[in-house]
Amino acid sequence: MANHNKMSSTKKLIIGLLSIILVCSLVLIIRIKIDEYLNNQKQIEISQVIDTIDIPDIDITPKKTERMLQIAELQKENSEVVGWLEIEGTNISYPVCQADNNDYYLTHSYKKEKVTGGSLFLDKDYDFTIPSSNLLIYGHRNKKGLIFEDLIKYQDEQFYKEHKLIRFTTAEEDTTYEIMAVFNSRVYYQDEENVFRYYYFVNAENKSEYDEFVENCKKSSLYETGVIAEYGDQLLTLSTCEYSQEDGRFAVVARKIENN
């Protein structure tokens, strides 16, 4: 009888512990889902903030578009906002920031608030005063289709044909770029030789270096776009993660064609 009572007590204890674990797990799952929802809402709000900035019509001129003036207003809130990136017909419409390192905006919004997914950000080495050859912009992906998630759609040639242009606006320029190449890549080990580390290219030292980058982009491209860049053309590279391989990356490279 004593053994029976002991077994019964042990069984109740195990059931009690399992119940506590189950409740804690459910609470944790609910909390994760709530945090995910709130973060996604924040990213959506960030993507729409440009539309909340009212610019008087009298201030808008051919040399200073509404978008350029809106960027200038965002810079009053954070001087590290360098522009706005938009691809029409996608969810990609976000401010782009630049810090003195490539880590800060992995986890912070343009308001410098902690946010899962961070911000789109320009490589720290880009110099607007030159300007550098390649606007290299990084961004996380988000399974709800936010941030740079839609970028991966460019693996499909038909999607490219329907979304060939990228708009990037700073306080000084409102510019259109046409896509030249799209390709899968990865972060290579330091000892790997004869590989294309596109993520190191920001400023060409000479024509040979520039032409080599363009040639490698075209060779790596998943399909032919018919677009080529010549030395001196401003380039724009968008880079995000690609999950088919370890440390995979996906890049879209475009060249400047006009100011809006």
CATH class: Mainly Beta
How many separate domains make up the residues?
A: 1
SS field, number of helical segments: 4
What is the average per-residue confidence, as pLDDT, rounded to a whole number? 89
Q: How many strand elements?
A: 8
Q: What is the CATH superfamily label?
A: Sortase
Task: State the shape.
Answer: globular
Question: Strand order across the biggest sheet?
Answer: 1-2-3-4-7-8-6-5
Euclidean distance between termini CA atoms: 88 Å
Please tell me how large the radius of gyration is. Answer: 24 Å
| CATH structural fold name | Sortase, Chain: A
The run of helices and strands is: HHEEEEHEEHEE
Percent in helix = 25-40%
Report the portion of residues in β strands.
Answer: 15-25%
CATH architectural label? Beta Barrel
Account of the protein in words:
The protein has about 260 residues and is an alpha+beta fold. It has one domain (about 50-260): Sortase, Chain: A, CATH 2.40.260.10. The protein is built from four helices and eight strands, in the order ααββββαββαββ. It has helices at about 1-50, 65-75, 155-160, 205-220, and strands spanning about 80-85, 95, 120, 135-140, 165-170, 175-185, 235-240, 250-260. An eight-stranded mixed barrel has the order 1-2-3-4-7-8-6-5. A hairpin with a 4-residue loop joins strand 5 and strand 6 (about 175-185). The chain is globular and about 80 Å long.
